[in-house]
Design goal:
Blueprint: H1 9-25, H2 32-41, H3 48-57, H4 65-85
């Protein structure tokens, strides 16, 4: 699995971007929507609800990876706050 639980989100995101850049350097080009789908599919199972919500509500070709990561970070912060208050 691409996404590792013990690594910070930024590290994993940078690793993913590095992979995309390597593919582009090799002449492989995909649509932005495909990159977003690959990114979402690499998330661990505990993100399934959020992944389904993004896939069902957004036009993936209009989303940037930065937008997706920002949304996921917001969810993570919200969950963390709720756990601290309960």
């Amino acid at each position: 699995m691409f996404w590792q639980r013990d690594k910070p989100d930024e590290y994993m995101y940078e690793r993913y971007i590095g992979t995309i850049n390597s593919l582009k350097a090799l002449g492989k080009s995909y649509t932005n929507g495909t990159y977003v789908e690959i990114f979402l599919s690499a998330l661990p199972p505990e993100w399934n609800v959020e992944v389904k919500a993004i896939l069902g509500s957004e036009n993936l070709s209009l989303l940037s990876l930065e937008d997706v990561l920002g949304s996921l970070k917001t969810v993570k912060k919200t969950v963390k706050k709720r756990r601290l208050h309960h």
